[in-house]
Amino acid sequence: MNLKYMEMAIEEAYKAMSVNEVPVGCIIVKDGKVISTGYNKKESLNAVTRHAELIAIEKASSVLNNWRLNDCDIYITLEPCPMCASAIKQARIKNVYCGLSNSDVNNLNIINQIFQKDKNNKSVNFCNDLAVEKVNLLMKSFFEKQRKK
User: Fold this and answer.
1) % of the chain exceeding 70 in pLDDT
2) 53 is catalytic
């Protein structure tokens, strides 16, 4: 785990916020090298699947010319939703590092279940709350601006 990658994910989240998207950013790393980035584009593309993680996974798969992202790490500013957690596991990403937990405790329970080993996939190492203050401030700022509209 390297906090410089979390800082890069936070930079991606600021890009999302600058275009009025929920500020979630993501970085995928393999062998110490950033191979893809992503930030939320759900609103701008009117597409429910345009989460930061899915965008970054698609880019990483293209870079590696393989849907299997073995030995990759993903850094996300916010704990993934179940859809993204499933994609992370299916992509065989090894480690997930999150800046902030989702405020919905049920989400964490679902994520932990998804990331467990099953008959087809290994377990996913999951570590969260690595940049709580920075990401919390970012999210709070975004939603305060939204409420003023």
Assistant:
1) 99
2) yes
